[in-house]
Amino acid sequence: MGWTARNIPDQSGRTAVVTGANSGLGFVTARELARRGARVVLACRDEERGRWARDRLVRELPEAGPRAELRLLDLGDLASVSAFAKELPDERVDLLVNNAGVMALPYGRTADGFERQFGVNHLGHFALTGLLLDRLLASPAPRVVTVSSALHLLGNIDITDLNSERSYRRWVAYGRSKTANLLFTHELAGRLADTPLIAAAAHPGYAATNLQSASARMEGRRAAERVMRLGNRLIAQSAEAGALPTLYAATAPGVGADSFTGPRLASWRGAPAPSLRAPWTLNDAAAQRLWAASEELTGVAYGVPS
Question: What pTM was estimated for this model as a whole?
């Protein structure tokens, strides 16, 4: 039998920030960390859905009530990211799970003018990690886990067109944003190699969440939405199973820097295992160029050597 949530080590005394914790993989990740004793900050864009998620977590784990906190965070708005970091009272953050994301949406821009998938999935998390870095490095055993996707294989980044202004194909743009997650992890791991921080990545395979149907729902494509929901019921693994690679990367002993964990069976489903990874996500020069561009676009400089 493979690794399960029962194998999560005791997290007592650790503080975890989980983005997108109001539903799906993020909620399961926050709940299971809380179950093992962590203090969990549910970082959510929508206050109503965030409160519902926190209430649900407390219903399922009454003992975790004092250790579960909701804080608002919109990764598509750098002012919100900055406010979240400033208002977080903790002097130490032991674990940051960069989980929130959007998938295959029609073309749109964030509050700061970035293409929406690149802006939310990569730039928002790049800025958040940088703004929390001092508090992460105050932990004796910090980790940053960024949730990518097997669909990063759909596209390498185009450093000359990060905002897809020349052309936009929603699935390619999604793949590029997930490639950016892996390049970010690669560069972060290298820059912090002389510190205790472990930067790792994970992906859920095909897990049943509301992410798949969001685009069709936004555009009123009811038939496509029904197909996505049917696929979730018949083909996908549960959100509980999909969250296991993230939880493994976040808590398991021996997780390596710049590792990429996904489901064992064809990167689709099953217990956590090392995952297939495109060679372009390990390109040092590309990672450094993306890092420099991300610092310029977000205004967040990490202050660690390249």
Answer: 0.91
